[in-house]
Amino acid sequence: MSKTTKYYPSRRNFMKAAAASLSVPMILPKSVFGANDKINLAWVGFNNQGWGDLRSCAHGNNVVALCDVNDQVMAKGAGQFKEAKKYRDFRKMLDEMGDKIDAVGVGTPDHNHFSITYRALSMGKHVFVEKPLVHSLWECRTLRKLAAEKGVVTQMGNQGHAFEGARLVKEWYEAGLIGEVKEVITWTDRPAGGWGFPGHPAGGFKEYAAAQDTPAHLDWDLWLGPTTKDIKHNNTYMGRQGSWRPWWDFGCGGLGDIGCHTIDTPYWAMGLGTPESVEVEMQHDANSIYTPNGSVVSYNFPARGKQPPVNLKWYEGPSRPKAPEGYDGKIHGGGGLIMVGSKGGIMHGGMRPNSPFLYPKAKWDEYKGNPDKRVPKTLERVKGIHGDWVNCIRTDKKACSDFSYSAPLTEVILLGTLAIRTGKPVQWDSENLKIKGNPEAAALIKPEARKGWRAEELG
Description:
By secondary structure, the protein is an alpha/beta fold. It has a domain at 11-161: Rossmann fold. The chain is built from 15 helices and 15 strands. Strands 13-12-11-7-10-9-8-14-15 form a nine-stranded mixed sheet. A six-stranded parallel sheet has the order 3-2-1-4-5-6, with helices on both faces. A hairpin with a 4-residue loop joins strand 14 (426-429) and strand 15 (434-436). Helix 9 (253-262) runs antiparallel to helix 13 (403-422). The longest helix has 20 residues, at 403-422. The radius of gyration is 22 Å and the shape is globular.
């Protein structure tokens, strides 16, 4: 790969640049994409969740390039998107196809999100990235800044943020239906169970999987991406359920997988911002390479104006919270959210806010039975996380989970993973991007990347 990265402007950025260069002002619409214009998409990584993302965003648009390090996965994409050019290395794809691409989707394992996204943003492309946005705190800050500089449309794939339920929760909270909230409870069955965590030992694996021959259809070196460790190929990492998630070098454990969904709703509804500190209770010893079961993470958020400080707790399977005082419903096994207010509370079961409700039950029954007293719908509704991104590219608007929002949310998630990885509390100096009192966690703020994958080589 060349050390000098070429800049390929998208159609929209090209038109803006052209307008700026003319001595006579050029009147342009908000976007060069009309309602019926097709966006030229490229997608990197489209197995499992990435396949659903690709197909959703491809509807009504052109898929001009596909990239995956696994030829068997590529065969699936090639069968549906026959006109798309096929690549193993995203850097080569963007170098060769840059001027033909408007937007890039990223559906790889977590550890590769940053490199691909940074490269695409540097070239002025709109970007959709699966959650969690990145793998480290420094990567969060870097992508947020770069996206703002480039003025492109970005989106993280935390689908629940586009749900009706998330908007209802925020509207109910802002209307004061549950009063003051000082406590939030969130939980999941991961990593003790659920998709992405098959055969999970309670304390985690203590060593990397033994080396296996790399099959011809897989480029293992590209799959490793920026990883500096000499980790040998093993099918354990490549399982049907995305079995890379529990391994800290590749994924962000149960919190990184589901926290971007479940914590998202109260974080957005209450405008929680940045936690001052994160504490952790461990059922098992901290594990530097693999997430253990049963951790309980406690985030301490400061007061926001007249709103009091908030303690948000995250329970990982099999740890599960007790029902707070006044809650008269069930604690769903797979996961859920409870916002504990001074006048009752809000609950939803599952990882995303599909069907939120008020509690106690009498409060909910009264609310449902009085349509004329319901809280007005003040927030804009969107048609799904994918449709919102595509629509915002066409209309030059900010997407609902764009990087100005999803990067700070991801920082919250990653601070919790650092507490679990080290088994120690984290004192967070957000302004200076520093962690106090936990040198092991501080060393992971900006992990080293190997040659060819560093930001200065990609931009």
